[in-house]
């Protein structure tokens, strides 16, 4: 939400502080209400609607434990689940901050503060509230877009993906995302996180293929000072950094068997042991993994652990290539064109019909990433606001990356020998792909519908 439209309530027993905050925020937000006595809080909430509440943690007690603040935080949450609450105290420490966040606070700041820090905390709270509101509204039609992460698609194959995301996201299931490079696997991971109950917690993305075996443990599990050469300070691993939230492991199919074993141990025990330490650290994460590697074929060749596949793959999402998505190519092209035209201060672009035809005919071996770069180049190099076919050029290596699958030859009816060959071929390919009809159809060079017709024809 826009900061200028925010209604803010500040509760603190220091009159000078209330006056200072009101003077600071009166030009930044729509309304500022101040209150010294927290006993009036529930009455205020009954009569007014607030977007953000600044709540002091200590009012009367000389112990300064923050218990008063926690008590009133609970009362606010009972009254209004949507309002963002920022806890304020002069006696803050890490334990209080963690407890406040676990009890439902949006943020935690210490006084005295710098004015810009308070405004920044307020702006962040408004943004989080806005995102939470979007997630809780009625489900939008997925024929246009899943969310604000540029996940656009009208094709049937993308509707299946959107449906799976909506069903899977609110659960705690570990998810494996499969798909070619450039199909948007990280966008799906972020969509799962943003629609989960962990949405306000960290989303940590790791390209595990980029980690050498020497760095894997310290990067993933953390390390203590002096654990190895150059370990000059304690290092927080990615598992601990993602605690309470989502850990996204990209390119998981490219890690060695040794690293797979270490990863499996952590996932089974739900705890990590930093290098140089003997003390386990419990972790609570939701795991989302992604790869373009053929994990099941690798497992059959003992190149990837089957038990790790079971651990990371409670639910599987297969992303289609761009060439399988029909007119989504044009939808995405227009989206990227508008984005890059605005970014480069150019007029809104238009596409010639010949340009649209060229874009649809290209095989897009680099998928959405290739399309995005192609559109950006075209916007930058084009003259005027009309994009012509010559504005889109494709590198030679891109043209050669994709090979058209050889279609299965239609067998004449009544030819028993040829029919048997076709039947045996279909059975062999389905077995090879572990019963995955989509993969089998792709390898055979036919659509899933065509494969289902043949399954029915041959009584398979």
Give the topology, please.
Elements lengths: L6 E5 L3 H11 L5 E5 L5 H7 L4 E5 L10 H13 L4 E6 L4 H9 L4 E4 L4 H22 L19 H13 L6 E4 L6 H10 L8 E5 L5 H9 L16 H4 L4 E5 L6 H13 L1 E2 L8 E2 L3 E6 L3 H6 L5 H7 L2 E4 L9 H16 L6 E2 L1 H9 L5 H15 L4 E2 L8 H6 L14 H17 L4 H8 L3 H10 L3
Parallel strand pairs: 1-2, 1-3, 3-4, 4-5, 6-11, 6-12, 7-8, 8-11, 13-14
Antiparallel strand pairs: 9-10
Helix pairs in contact: 2-3, 13-15, 17-18, 18-19
Extended strand count: 14
Report the uncertain regions.
61-65, 135-150, 397-416
The top-level CATH class of the largest domain is Alpha Beta
CATH topology grouping of the largest domain = Rossmann fold
CATH architecture descriptor of the largest domain: 3-Layer(aba) Sandwich
Q: For this entry, what is the oligomeric state of its chains?
A: single chain
As laid out across the biggest beta sheet, the strand order is: 2-1-3-4-5
Mean pLDDT: 82
Portion of residues in beta strands equals 5-15%
Class derived from helix and strand content: alpha/beta
Q: Give the overall shape.
A: globular
CATH homologous superfamily placement of the largest domain: P-loop containing nucleotide triphosphate hydrolases
* Relative helix content: 40-55%
Could you explain how this protein is built, in words?
The chain has about 450 residues and is an alpha/beta fold. The chain has four domains: about 5-135, Response regulator (Rossmann fold); about 155-320, P-loop containing nucleotide triphosphate hydrolases (Rossmann fold), CATH 3.40.50.300; about 320-400, Helicase, Ruva Protein, domain 3 (Orthogonal Bundle); about 415-455, Arc Repressor Mutant, subunit A (Orthogonal Bundle), CATH 1.10.10.60. It is about 45% helix and about 10% strand. It contains 19 helices and 14 strands. The chain has helices spanning about 15-25, 40-45, 65-80, 95-100, 115-135, 155-170, 185-195, 215-220, 240, 255-270, 295-300, 305-310, 330-345, 355-360, 365-380, 395-400, 415-430, 435-445, 450-455, and strands at about 5-10, 30-35, 50-55, 85-90, 105-110, 175-180, 205, 245-250, 270, 280, 285-290, 315-320, 350, 385. It has a five-stranded parallel β-sheet, sandwiched between helices. A five-stranded parallel β-sheet has the order 7-8-11-6-12. Strand 1, helix 1 (about 15-25) and strand 2 form a beta-alpha-beta unit. Helix 18 (about 435-445) packs across helix 19. The longest helix is centred in the N-terminal third of the chain and has 22 residues, at about 115-135. It starts with 6 loop residues before the first strand and ends with a helix. Mean pLDDT is about 80; it is low at about 60-65, about 135-150 and about 395-415.
């Amino acid at each position: 939400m826009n900061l200028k439209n925010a209604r803010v309530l500040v509760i603190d027993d220091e009159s000078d502080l209330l006056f200072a905050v009101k003077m600071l925020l009166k030009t930044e937000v729509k309304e500022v209400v101040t209150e010294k006595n927290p006993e009036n809080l529930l009455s205020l909430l009954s009569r007014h609607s607030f977007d953000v509440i600044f709540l002091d943690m200590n009012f009367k007690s000389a112990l300064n434990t923050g218990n008063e603040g926690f008590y009133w935080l609970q009362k606010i949450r009972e009254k209004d689940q949507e309002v963002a609450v920022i806890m304020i105290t002069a006696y803050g420490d890490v334990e209080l901050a963690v407890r406040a966040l676990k009890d439902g606070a949006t943020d935690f700041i210490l006084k005295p503060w710098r004015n810009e820090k308070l405004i920044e905390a307020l702006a962040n709270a408004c943004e989080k509230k806005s995102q939470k509101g979007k997630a809780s509204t009625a489900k939008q039609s997925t024929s246009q877009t899943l969310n604000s992460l540029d996940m656009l698609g009208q094709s049937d194959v993308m509707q299946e993906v959107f449906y799976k995301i909506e069903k899977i996201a609110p659960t705690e299931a570990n998810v494996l995302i499969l798909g070619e490079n450039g199909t948007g696997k990280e966008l799906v991971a972020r969509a799962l996180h943003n629609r989960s109950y962990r949405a306000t917690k960290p989303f940590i993305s790791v390209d595990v293929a980029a980690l050498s075996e020497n760095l894997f443990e310290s990067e993933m599990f953390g390390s203590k000072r002096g654990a190895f050469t150059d370990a000059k300070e304690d290092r927080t691993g990615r598992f601990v950094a993602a605690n309470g939230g989502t850990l996204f492991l990209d390119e998981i199919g490219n890690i060695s068997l040794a690293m797979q074993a270490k990863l499996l141990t952590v996932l089974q025990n739900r705890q990590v042991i930093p290098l140089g330490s003997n003390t386990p650290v419990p972790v609570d994460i939701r795991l989302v993994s992604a790869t373009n590697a053929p994990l099941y074929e690798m497992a059959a060749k003992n190149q990837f652990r089957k038990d790790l596949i079971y651990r990371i793959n409670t639910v599987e999402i297969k992303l289609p290539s761009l060439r399988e998505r029909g007119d989504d190519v044009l939808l995405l092209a227009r989206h990227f064109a508008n984005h890059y035209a605005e970014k480069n201060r150019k007029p809104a672009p238009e596409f010639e019909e010949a340009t649209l035809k060229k874009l649809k005919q290209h095989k897009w071996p680099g998928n959405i990433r290739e399309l995005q770069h192609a559109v950006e180049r075209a916007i930058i190099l084009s003259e005027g606001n009309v994009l012509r076919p010559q504005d889109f050029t494709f590198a030679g290596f891109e043209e050669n990356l994709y090979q058209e699958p050889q279609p299965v030859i239609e067998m004449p009816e009544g030819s028993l020998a040829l029919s048997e060959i076709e039947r045996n071929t279909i059975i062999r390919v389905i077995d090879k792909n572990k019963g995955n009809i989509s993969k089998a159809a792709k390898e055979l060079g036919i659509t899933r519908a065509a494969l289902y017709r043949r399954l029915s024809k041959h009584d398979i």
